[in-house]
Amino acid sequence: MRAVIQRVRRGAVSVNDRRIAEIGKGLVILVGIGPADTADTAQALARKIAQLRIFEDEYGKMNLSLLEIGGEALVVSQFTLYADARKGNRPSFTESAPPEVAAPLVDQFANFMRDLGVPVQCGEFGAHMLVEIENDGPVTIWLEK
């Protein structure tokens, strides 16, 4: 399981010109699922992200977690995180999990974040989405479990 997390002041997702999700201060989390990923992988990644200290404290140091600041999360499925562009000019996506495996794991990941106390909104799995990210910092981190 791979995630690109971006610390944001605001994030939103629209599908077919209709806003389906929007958050304030927190994280936009782009999540890619691999074929070997499980609910345990999703839970471990959710815990890591919720507790990752990437928000500034009163001294300007990245020392606070999403949980500590009471931030929100916007979870967006992103199979292209498993792109392989080593050969040729067209990326291959054969390393990403098929939709019937990936969709439930993205939902489980979001639910694990909720279980930890994070307010979560989600994009729409498999849809063409417009993702608005007002990156704060900028802070962008890539994680893999």
How would you sum up this structure, described in words?
- GO terms for molecular function: D-tyrosyl-tRNA(Tyr) deacylase activity; Gly-tRNA(Ala) deacylase activity; Ser(Gly)-tRNA(Ala) hydrolase activity; tRNA binding.
- This is D-aminoacyl-tRNA deacylase.
- Its EC number is 3.1.1.96, 3.1.1.-.
- A motif (Gly-cisPro motif, important for rejection of L-amino acids) lies at residues 137-138.
- It comes from Bellilinea caldifistulae.
- The protein has 145 residues and is α/β, with parallel strands linked by helices.
- The chain has one domain (2-144): D-tyrosyl-tRNA(Tyr) deacylase (D-tyrosyl-trna(Tyr) Deacylase, Chain: A), CATH 3.50.80.
- The chain has helices at residues 39-51, 66-69, 99-115; strands at residues 2-15, 18-23, 26-32, 55-56, 62-64, 72-77, 120-122, 129-144.
- Strands 1, 2, 3, 6, 7 and 8 form a six-stranded mixed beta sheet that branches.
- Strand 1 and strand 2 form a beta hairpin.
- Helix 1 crosses helix 3 (99-115).
- The relative contact order is 0.30.
